[in-house]
Amino acid sequence: MSFDLDALRRxxxxxxxxxxxxxxxVAGSTPREVGASMLVWPEQGGTGQSGxxxxxxLEFAAAAAAFDHAGLTRHPLGPSLGQCCGxxxxxxxxxxxxxxxxxxxxxxxxxxxxxxxxxxxxxVLDRARARxxxxxxxxxxxxxxxxVAPPALPVWVWGAGHVGRALISTLAxxxxxxxxxxxxxxxxxxxxxxxxxxxxxxxxxxxxxxLAPKGAAHLILTYSHELDLSLCHAALQHGxxxxxxxxxxxxxxxxxxRLAALGHTLAQIDAICCPIxxxxxxxxxxxxxxxxxSQLLSLQKTRNDKAWPMHSSASGx
Length: 317
Description:
- The relative contact order is 0.12.
- The strands form three sheets. This protein has a six-stranded parallel β-sheet with strand order 11-10-9-12-13-14, sandwiched between helices. A five-stranded antiparallel β-sheet has the order 3-2-1-5-4. Strands 6-8-7 form a three-stranded antiparallel β-sheet, covered by helices on one side.
- It has ten helices and 14 strands.
- Helices cover about 35% and strands about 25% of the residues.
């Protein structure tokens, strides 16, 4: 788990003032691990929220009190909360606006607490940096330590059919992905697409490939094999971090030949993963989405591990 600074930036930009609640310490059986967090913001008639610290009465109470206090609070998960986990959770609650957010920029670790940074916290940070490791989220002598998540992985989903919709619904709640959804017209998209997903209708999707970051992950699954081919051709010309194509072994072989005829080497073509997902999970759209999400989560972890450390210093609140 990491401090998702990108998500906090988006929330502050959209809502102005945002509370962040993070699980700082656990004892016994608890619904979430240390580092799990949620963002809460005021809305007419209540609060809005993204992320989760485990649901249930604990999350409801923490969200309701998110703007009433800041700092550490301990919550036994017993009868008083109507929960039977039997453990206890310590939460850290903080409020952020644009000014408070700016103080976090440039850090690879967010370490904060009351008073001067304890020697034990210095030791945790120095040891992690010396080993080139990411420090685990942890509470040390009243100070919360969290590594900052690397920038979100840009994921471009090409196609808004059944599989595209299943992919978006599966990927959108996951942290660490920035989703762009492309198809040939606005009528192709559902009216209830997630707010954080950028919708890009265009009559010539292959031309939009130039807009994608070079290291983006592409999932190509349109209604047309010819359009899929054009997108694969455009992706090979543009460059990518990952490219997955929906299809079969037969489609893979045919595309391999046609892309070779367009001037791409077999080594370049074989960088396209086809079929996407895990075949043993079946062909149901949601099963394809689950298998593909697993691939992207593995890619994201490898990418994030290589990104550490991003900066050379961390400072306290």
